[in-house]
Write a structure and sequence with these properties.
There is one protein chain. With 422 residues, this protein is of the alpha/beta class. It has one domain (5-110, 145-417): Peroxisomal Thiolase, Chain A, domain 1 (3-Layer(aba) Sandwich). The chain is 32% helix and 18% strand. Strands 1, 2, 5, 6, 7, 8, 9, 10, 11, 14 and 15 form an 11-stranded mixed β-sheet that branches. Strand 14 (397-404) and strand 15 (408-415) form a beta hairpin. Helix 3 packs parallel to helix 6 (146-156) and helix 10 (283-296) crosses helix 11 (314-328). The N and C termini lie close together (8 Å).
């Protein structure tokens, strides 16, 4: 019999809400955490807004030595893993460390540290040949994204499989999907998983400026992220992290764990079409949704809520709306669909895990978070996008999806364990 996998611990760092409780309070209240960029002077840039986290690492138990070694994204990952462990009530003492694994999703690596160190080594870009003697002793850790998984494994004492999954903006779904597969196949019993991203730096902002992917509503940052709205103008760059404890269902039940959700189905596809472009028919995302539902052995009509990618770009909103209609049929018009990026921005590789956390909490509270800033509906987009205000809905099964540069399309189905018999 295939082992079933459940979420028993959640930790979140997100704009406007440090910790899972604050994160959910922001979402359920429909508040936005997008603001004028403060990490550096945004004046030279086309998009001057971001969704930043007010994070004090020392308040979360990180030592000065840790901060010297760890990029901001690594700090996020360790912090959310610790919160998830505490939330799970799991006692690691007595567990076989070789049966505990780690998978972390990430898209752009240690961007902040690498850019900062390059500026030092190149004298702010003036030197074409950099002086390596200015490099810090921990630069290698910052160069290889695998260090994020290493830091979490060290913090948790995990000696099982360890990996970083980097598939663009679907990394946060794909890392959790990979972790669940490792438990299902019997390679691990416990997985610390999730995703982390701290991309808010001049190089990242400049790159998205160049392709005009980000919003330029600089005079109204609180309302700049507008998924599904006719006036949408791109996404708002964000940062964040979500961590989870995954366990085999029967083991979690035996220890009396609180179970947020079962990971019932997961699938990923690539459109092999364009690095950043999406076809309007949504066929690739639809294929991922169909495969995830098949693995979960659930019907489209079982879906109670769709946590959408909802980036606020015109091509994405059209693409995934078409995918929902293709996969869910008439039920697509009945099920609530919303985008939390309207409130916390787009944290690239981390957002898929942050959205899994939001989906699990929606099930926990039977509340669907809203799509903020949806004031002028786009007539081309005709589903129920839950504008402005959270909605009380019996939420037993949630579909969450992601879309990433490179053509990646991923889907995950979360459900209550009692909705499935095997």
């Amino acid at each position: 019999m295939t082992r079933r996998v459940v979420i028993t611990g959640i930790g979140v760092l997100a704009p406007g809400g440090v910790g899972t409780k604050s994160f959910w309070e922001l979402l359920s209240a429909g508040r936005t955490a997008t603001r004028t960029l403060s990490a550096f002077d945004p004046t030279p840039y086309r998009s001057r807004i971001a969704a930043e986290i007010d994070f004090d690492p020392q308040e979360h138990g990180l030592l000065p030595q840790d901060l010297r070694r760890m990029d901001r994204a690594a700090q996020f990952a360790v912090t959310t893993a610790r919160e998830a462990l505490a939330d799970s009530g799991l006692e690691l003492q007595g567990q076989d460390p070789a049966r505990i694994g780690v998978t972390i999703g990430n898209a752009v690596g240690a961007t902040i540290s690498l850019e900062s160190e390059y500026r030092v080594a190149s004298n702010d870009g003036r030197l074409s040949l950099v002086d390596h003697t200015y490099a810090p002793p921990h630069l290698y850790n910052q160069l290889v994204p695998s260090s994020f998984a290493t830091e979490v494994a060290w913090a948790m004492g995990a000696e099982g499989p360890s990996a970083v999954v980097s598939t663009g903006c679907t990394s946060g779904i794909d890392s959790v999907g990979h972790a669940a597969d490792l438990i299902r196949e019997g390679t691990a019993d416990i997985m610390f998983t999730g995703a982390t991203e701290a991309p808010i730096s001049p190089i990242t902002v400049a790159c998205f400026d160049a392709i005009k992917a980000t919003s330029t509503y600089n005079d109204d940052p609180e309302h700049a992220s507008r998924p599904y709205d006719r006036t949408r103008g791109g996404f708002v760059l964000g940062e964040g992290s979500a961590g989870f404890v995954l366990e085999e269902l029967e083991s979690a039940r035996r220890r009396g764990a609180h179970i947020y959700a079962e990971i019932a189905g997961y699938a990923s596809r690539c459109n092999a079409y364009h690095m950043t472009g999406l076809r309007a028919d949504g066929v690739e995302m639809s294929a991922a949704i169909d495969a995830a539902l098949d693995e979960a052995r659930l019907d489209a009509t079982d879906i109670d809520y769709v946590n959408a990618h909802g980036s606020g770009t015109k091509q994405n909103d059209r693409h995934e709306t078409a995918a929902f209609k293709r996969s869910l049929g008439e039920h697509a018009y009945k099920v609530p669909v919303s985008s939390i990026k309207s409130m916390i921005g787009h944290s690239l590789g981390a957002i898929g895990s942050v959205e899994i956390a939001a989906s699990a909490l929606a099930m926990e509270h039977n509340v669907v978070p809203p799509t903020a800033n949806l004031n002028t509906p786009d007539p081309e987009l005709d589903l129920d996008y839950v504008p402005h205000t959270a909605r009380e809905v019996r939420t037993d099964t949630v579909l969450t999806v992601g879309s990433g540069f490179g053509g990646f399309q991923s889907a995950m189905v979360l459900t209550r364990p009692d909705r499935r018999t095997s």
